[in-house]
Amino acid sequence: QSTWEEQLAEALRAAETRAESASGALAKERALVVVLQTEIRTLLHERDAQVASLSRKLATTADAATAAERQRAELQSALDSERLRTAELSGSVATLVGEIAHLEATVQEKEYAELNREMWIPDEDMRSCNRCEAEFTFFRRKHHCRVCGHVYCADCSSNRVATPSSPAPVRCCDMCFALKRKSERGVMGR
Questions:
Q1: pLDDT band at 149 (very low <50, low <70, confident <90, very high)
Q2: What is the pTM of this model?
Q3: Are 172 and 147 in contact (CB under 8 A)?
């Protein structure tokens, strides 16, 4: 029996040693769990603070983006209005430029006609063309330039132009025709 009791006592001591060792290990594990739980709480707290900070920044950024979009829309609307106004003004300017060009051409024609219309040269006063000096005959007839009033042959007065006094084209000499074309090109070239 003593052997059995000794064995039992030995087993009991071994069990107590293992229990003490396990108890020490359990205490270490519990201490480690407490440390880890503290670290986890700290990390969660920091994460929550970062999430809150990022949420505030996101809200501020979203507000700024909304304000920027609203401002962009207002600026786009103002730009569209200005483009429309510019197009309208461009059309008005083009119309005015055309009217000014027409008025200038009309004034030039009237001034030229007044300068050159000193007198309507009577047919009987002219024996030859005022430009090429070819003599008038039964076949080479006399023609008055309706701009300057001088007498020309058909070859030197084969052009037709509209004048302030006659919107339908009338006969004019080569010189008056060239001057009229030059004044029209000068007006159109602006």
A1: confident
A2: 0.39
A3: yes
